[in-house]
Amino acid sequence: MDFTIPPKVEEFRARIARFVADEILPVEANGAAWDPHGNIALPWLEALREKARAEGLWCLALRPDTGGQGLGKVGMAVCYEEMNRSIFGPVVFNAAAPDDGNMMVLEQAATDDQKARWLAPIVDGRVRSSFAMTEPHPGGGSDPGMMLTTATRRGDAYVIRGRKWFITGAAEAAHFILVARTSDDPRRGLTAFLHDREDAGWRIDRRIPIMGPEEHGGHCELVYEDMELSADRVLLGEGLGLKLTQMRLGPARLTHCMRWLGLAKRCTEIAREYAENRHGFGIRLSDRESIQIKLGDLAMGIETGRLLVMKAAWALDRGSFARKEVSMAKIHVANLLHKAADVAIQINGARGYSTDTVLEWIYRYARQARLVDGADEVHQMVLNRHLAQEGRDFWRWEAA
């Protein structure tokens, strides 16, 4: 087992680390650079994106012929973790959800004509995108088989009716991947479609207020009222929507974990810096055993998460679906992020609870980690199903 990374990946990691430290963190520290929803304001974002693009730090996950650097999942794990030392990092490098996952699945599943129309503008940074799948009760959430939004075939077109909610980025998206029901077949009943912001027959009902800071475009509830889409808007093929969803969500879950590890490390960094400099009752905080135990436990948790993520990334690069590995990483890193923010706030005291650091931002953001792309309990059920099927082979090493 070789845990060294290729020189190309280390070069990108080092360049990203420098860019984050020199270019992004100063912007993050400037309150004037924030928008009302707790994210980087668009003028500041565009200026940083131009610099990142000029330095070749753009869309690293995509193939070179698509406009990326072809790093693979292992390279992404290294670089995405480094990007998210800043809360604004991933979006600067065009590596933030939902665009990142949408670009990767379009690169895999779209036709050449669809790539030119729907993928290239996202890669160029000219538009943002959304993935419209989740529905309000009693529709589909973690179980896409419950989906109620329908796409009815009428001649050479499909008519879409239904409602979606918590659709990330929808308020500022121009391109959408929409999943709807085309039949009652349990395996081939869903189909993915491409639609544009300017298409008639749909609307944003509301931008849903949430506990945490928001991605650009928020989390919205969408209503489809007889939206008509031509057959060339079908992505991958009729009845292959579930497959398309699996293609997108597996890697996307892992990229969340890659980024969350960067935020967990940032929490630890802020906590350590404060503990090293804060004195009380005649002793530095960092010299107290209780603080050392907290920070040591966080360090171990982060490294455990890195190993889980790297194993899953390695498996994906080898062509596996890595369902067990991704589920384990998702559960651990989501809970780790919340713990890291909580411990860092506790060490910083009132300072951590204030907006003088980004800890309270990360804390509010972190609570969603245990829900997005499958709640903890869903992934635990997945792992139990694998355990029931595989028995002792659940822990089998793959032999050369």
Can you describe this structure?
The protein has about 400 residues and is α+β, with helices and mostly antiparallel strands. It has three domains: about 5-110, Orthogonal Bundle (Butyryl-Coa Dehydrogenase, subunit A, domain 1); about 130-240, Beta Barrel (Butyryl-CoA Dehydrogenase, subunit A, domain 2); about 240-395, Up-down Bundle (Butyryl-CoA Dehydrogenase, subunit A, domain 3). It has helices at about 5-30, 40-55, 70-85, 90, 100-110, 110-125, 240-275, 290-315, 325-350, 350-355, 360-365, 375-390, and strands spanning about 130, 150-155, 155-170, 175-180, 190-195, 200-205, 220-230, 235, 280, 285. Strands 1-4-5-8 form a four-stranded mixed beta sheet. The chain has a four-stranded antiparallel beta sheet with strand order 2-3-7-6, with no helix packed on it. The chain is globular, with a radius of gyration of 22 Å.
> Which CATH class of the largest domain is shown?
Mainly Alpha
Report the uncertain regions.
none
Largest sheet: 4 strands, mixed
Run of helices and strands: HHHHHHEEEEEEEEHEEHHHHH
**Strand arrangement in the largest pleated sheet:** 1-4-5-8
Overall mean pLDDT score? 97
E-strand count:
10
The third-level CATH topology of the largest domain is Butyryl-CoA Dehydrogenase, subunit A, domain 3
List keywords for this structure.
single chain, about 400 residues, alpha+beta, Butyryl-Coa Dehydrogenase, subunit A, domain 1, Butyryl-CoA Dehydrogenase, subunit A, domain 2, Butyryl-CoA Dehydrogenase, subunit A, domain 3, 3 domains, four-stranded mixed beta sheet, four-stranded antiparallel beta sheet
